[in-house]
Amino acid sequence: MRITVLDAATLGADLDLSALSALGEAEIYSKTSGGEIVSRLQGADVAILNKVKLTEEILASLPSLRLICITATGYDNVDVQACRKLGIAVCNVAGYSSQSVAQLTLAMALSLYTHLPEYDTHVKNGAYTRGGVQNCLAPVYHELAGKTWGIIGFGNIGQAVGTVARAMGCRVIVHRRHAAEDFENVSLDELYAQSDIISLHVPLTEQTRGMIDRQALSRMKRGVMLINVARGAVLDEAAVADAVIEGQIGFFGCDVYSHEPFPVGHPFSHLLNRKNVCLTPHMAWGSYESRVRCLDEVIANIRAFERGELRNRVDVAKGTL
User: Fold this and answer.
1) Which of 122, 209, 282, 313 is catalytic?
2) Which residues on neighbouring strands pair with residue 46, listed in sequence order?
3) What is the pLDDT of residue 177?
4) pLDDT score recorded for residue 267
5) Predicted model pTM
6) 259 has catalytic annotation
7) Alpha helix ranges (H) inside the chain
8) C-alpha count within 13 angstroms, C-beta hemisphere, residue 39
9) 196: alpha, beta or left? (left if phi > 0; alpha if psi -120 to 50)
10) Is 291 a known active-site residue?
11) Dihedral Cα 126, 129, 132, 137, nearest 10 deg
12) What's the pLDDT at 238?
């Protein structure tokens, strides 16, 4: 079996990929541009990728390709319908990053609500020492306890966030297609109107693309905290940037963007110096433990495919919100 990894850099330089060699001949590329995809996958039985886009045109030119393993839960970068027509199996990995993403989501909420970077700077720049007062309580910060945390999308990650938010004393309300057990289920309008904090944990679909637009933002509480750790394109990014600048959004945390890395002139470039904004480089999923689990899942997917098993096959079973 010939295995080709197209964008190993997205898994981190510290992750040991040598276990792939036990499955067959492994060719590993750190990065692959659009013009290099076809040549690098010629003769490959298995393609392993994270962000590389595989279109129907590309897939049709790869007659030996039997399996695509995506090192992520989302798979919108692969034309799955074309894979069905061409008889190419597609596997994702699910559940591996739930704790990592939940941790980053909570960290964003805590840091923004507590103004942690400002207090850290106050000590490190010498202002605390020079001030001669035992404490500093500005800017004013508030507790999460007693706040209403709205979660949109309640799969593995949403559930993990709901559990930690509840542990912090928040009232947790949920919007998803199917009612969540043991949590309060509400409509989107109710969630927008009631939430002090809203976090997004949905896949990117035609239904979720651009769902947080100007109309949705206008229905939220003024000063709401909005956290996006789902997909960048679920936001109307220009509308969100405007809402931050205008004060409709009081705190904004984001780890994902419609173009990654986001370019100069992106709407969020106007938010870079704002203390009520926390922007991270699509790292929420990537704790070391999470990446090890991800690689283990990919290896298990390949072995299952060789045995004829349908493990994590997104070309034969649709995911749920």
Assistant:
1) 282
2) 3, 67
3) 85
4) 98
5) 0.89
6) no
7) 37-41, 56-60, 80-86, 98-114, 116-124, 127-131, 156-167, 188-194, 214-218, 237-246, 288-306
8) 6
9) alpha
10) no
11) 70
12) 98
pLDDT at 63: 97
pLDDT at 318: 54
pLDDT tens, position by position, 214-239:
999 999 999 999 999 999 999 999 99
Contacts of 166 (CB under 8 A, 6+ apart): 172
- What's the DSSP call for residue 67? E
Catalytic residue, candidates 36, 56, 143, 260: 260
Report pLDDT for 171.
Answer: 98
What is d(CA 238, CA 222) in angstroms, rounded to the nearest whole number?
Answer: 18
3-state secondary structure of 176: coil
Q: For the chain, what's the residue count?
A: 321
Which pLDDT does position 319 carry in this prediction? 43
Q: Which amino acid is at 130?
A: R
CA neighbor of 253 nearest in space, from 95, 93, 94, 116 = 116
Question: What one-character-per-residue DSSP string does 199-262 give?
Answer: EE-----TTTTT-B-HHHHHTSPTTEEEEE-S-GGGB-HHHHHHHHHHTSEEEEEE---SSSSP
Q: Which residue among 231, 266, 291, 293 is the active-site one? A: 231
In degrees, rounded to 5, the angle at the alpha carbon of residue 280 between the alpha carbons of residues 275 and 281 is 150
List the beta bridge partners of residue 224: 249
> Distance from first CA to last CA of the chain, Å, rounded?
34
Residues of the chain with pLDDT under 70: 317-321
Q: Is 246 a catalytic residue?
A: no
Task: Give residue 234's identity as a one-letter amino acid code.
Answer: V
Full set of structural domains in the chain with CATH: 2-96+288-306 (3.40.50.720), 98-279 (3.40.50.720)
